[in-house]
Amino acid sequence: MQDARFPLGGLGYVGVGAPDPIAWREFGTKVCGLTPALIPPGPRRQGIPIANPDAAGVADDGSVFLKMDRRQWRLAIHPANTPGLAYLGFELPTATDLARAVDAIGRHRVEIRRGTEDERQARSVADLAVLHDPAGHRLELFTGPIVDQPPEPDFDIEFLTGPLGMGHVVLYVPEIEPALAFYRDVLGFRRTDYMQFGPGGMGIHFLRCTRRHHSLALLQLGPPSGLQHLMLESTTIDGVGLALDRALAAGVRITSGLGRHRNDKTVSFYMQGPSGFDVEIGWDGVLVGDDWVEHEFAGGGDDWGHHGLTAEALAPRD
Ligand SMILES: [Fe+2]
């Protein structure tokens, strides 16, 4: 899709910090429909799955790893007193692509370093490189993830991943221009569309690195940085509706009811996750080809629904 120097393959994994990773595991499995990792990353355990259900998906340090597909894991929740985004992993097809990426990014005078053996083990990847965006978010470019068994969720949901990656994230950035320049010029994302809310660059910009309408959106509302929401895409509308039923039954706060976004056409709802950021469960997002023309859109972000998705609702929570 983008500059062939190093073709990003989508959002591969997300790591967050949370005071109670087990609470996140319960939300992730019983509401979202994720599955505990069969074998959490870390020093090899001779490939023996853990039989104790209390320990499902839990690594030695108390981190919880959840899977969505045949990847060993996609979402990690690490013990942390202060909740927040720990890292985003973007995938590259080969070790050669990773080497090219490190070289090309370094030429932009952006600090990037190869991952250590401990970091490779912690993520279960063949190799990775670490850098930060202008807002301070930690990014990892990786190659060679571990693949194991398909997930066996307790509920009827299948996630759309593969070449599109695991979904998308929306990040708060304090200044939009440096962030846009970094993701577009240094990493090679392409802007699909954007919406402006107010003065001083306030708005949201949707960026893609696969055919998914966006793998990343940059939201400027003011000073904060961090993760606003994580979106996971179901292959069916029933997967969304059933997740909404489970969220309501579990008393999870629905921050925006069911609706269809105007730009990516995703039918989705948003709910408050256990550690600050929202989780969006969606379906039917558009795929974008090379003939797509970048544009600004205005006049509301939704064809219908998504009630509650206001500027106040988008503001960060303590
Ligand atoms: Fe979203």
Tell me about this structure.
With about 325 residues, the protein is an alpha+beta fold. The chain folds into two domains: about 10-145, 2,3-Dihydroxybiphenyl 1,2-Dioxygenase, domain 1; about 160-315, 2,3-Dihydroxybiphenyl 1,2-Dioxygenase, domain 1 (Roll), CATH 3.10.180.10. About 20% of the residues lie in helices and about 30% in strands. The chain has six helices and 18 strands. The protein has helices at about 20-30, 95-105, 115-125, 175-185, 235-250, 310-315, and strands spanning about 10-20, 35, 65, 75-80, 85-90, 110-115, 125-130, 140-145, 170, 190-195, 205-210, 215-220, 225-235, 255-260, 265-270, 280-285, 295, 300-305. The strands form two sheets. It has a ten-stranded mixed sheet with strand order 17-10-11-12-9-13-16-15-14-18. A hairpin with a 6-residue loop joins strand 10 and strand 11 (about 205-210). The longest helix has 13 residues, at about 95-105. The chain is globular. The mean pLDDT is about 95.
Q: Count the helices. How many?
A: 6
**Would you tell me the overall average pLDDT?**
93
The biggest beta sheet reads: 10 strands, mixed
Regarding CATH, which class of the largest domain? Alpha Beta
Number of strands: 18
Question: What pattern of helices and strands is seen along the backbone?
Answer: EHEEEEHEHEEEHEEEEHEEEEEH
Shape: globular
How are strands sequenced across the largest beta sheet? 17-10-11-12-9-13-16-15-14-18
